[in-house]
Amino acid sequence: xxxxxxxxxxxxxxxxxxxxxxxxHSALPDADLWFWDADDTVxxxxxxxxxxxxxxxxxxxxxxxxxxxRIEPALDRxxxxxxxxxxxxxxxxxxxxxxxxxxxxxGIPFTGSGSASSHLAFDKVAAKRFAAIAGVKAxxxxxxxxxxxxxxxxxxxxxxPTRDGSSYGLIFVNAxxxxxxxxxxxxxxxxxxxxxxxxxxxxxxxLEQLDGTLIALPxxxxxxxxxxxxxxxxxxxxxxxxxxxxxxxxxxxxxxMDLALRAHNALSxxxxxxxxxxxxxxxxxxxxxxxxxxxxxxxxxxxxLKAQGIEFADFLRGxxxxxxxxxxx
Length: 329
Description:
Layout: E1 2-8, H1 14-27, E2 32-36, E3 41-45, H2 47-52, E4 67-70, H3 71-80, E5 83-88, H4 92-95, H5 98-106, H6 115-122, H7 124-133, H8 147-154, E6 157-161, E7 171-173, H9 176-186, E8 191-195, E9 200-208, E10 214-216, E11 220-223, H10 231-235, E12 241-243, H11 250-266, E13 272-280, E14 283-290, H12 300-308, H13 312-327
Parallel strand pairs: 1-2, 1-5
Antiparallel strand pairs: 2-3, 3-4, 6-7, 6-8, 9-10, 9-11, 9-13, 11-12, 13-14
C-alpha cells in the first residue's frame, strides 16, 4: 500500500492539521502528501512546500499544485492506487465520521476511529451520555432557555460548540454581558452550556495496540497561560504549561487513566483517542473525547507517548498496521 498523509480540511482546525502533517512527515518521510483545501479540493504537495511553511498556526497553507479534484473523486483515486491514509486532520467533516464513512464505503484503510464512533464522540451531548453509562462523571447540561436562571444559580458557566473542537468558540460566562455572546453564538450553531467547574485541566490518551489491547498513557496536566485553554493558549501562547506525567496524586492519575479507558470503550473508539477532564475537588469530571487529537510536535498526545517511552514513528507504524488489519476484515 502507498502510505499517504491526508491533512488540511474544510473547517476551522485546518491550521492545526498542517502542523500535525509536518510532524507526521518527519516521522514518515517516504509518505505521499495530500492536502485537502478549504474549497474541498485535494492537492498532492511536496515535502519542501510543507516544511517551508514556518508558521502553520497563523497562516493558511498553499500547496502550490493543481487540484486532483474534490474529496470524493480524490478518494476514488486513493482506492484505485491502493493508498492507506494517515489522517493528520482535526474537526469538522474530518472528525465527525463523514470522511471515515466515505473511506469505509470504498474500502480505503485509514488511521483512527471508524465512522460510527467518530460521529458519536464528535457530538459532545451524546458523548457525555455514553461516557456516563460507562461510569464517567460528566457535568449537567443547561438548556439555552434556562441560561439566565442557571447563571443566577451557579455564578459562572461555560459554553462551547456541540459539534466542533473546543479550541474555537469557547465562551466563559463570568458576567451578564457574556450571556449575550452565548445567545449570539447559538444562533449560528448548537452550543453545549454547562456549569463552570473549578479545578485543574487534564487530558489522557488511550492507545490501541496491534493485538487489540488498550493502554492508557500518562495523564497530562495543563496550566493555561491566561486561565483558558483555547486556541491561543494551546498553540501560540508561550506561557502555557503542559506537564506529563501529571503531578496529581497517584490515585488521581490512576483514576484519570481508568476513566479515559472507559470513555474510549464506551464510544467504541479505534486506534487512539484523547479524553479531556477537569480535576475538581470531587474528582475528575469528563469534558470530551477527541478521536483525532492533535499530532503536532507540541501536541498533548505525542507528549504522553514520549512519557510512556513510545517513539512517535513507532506509534504511527502501529496505527498503520492496525488500519491494514481492519481493512482486511
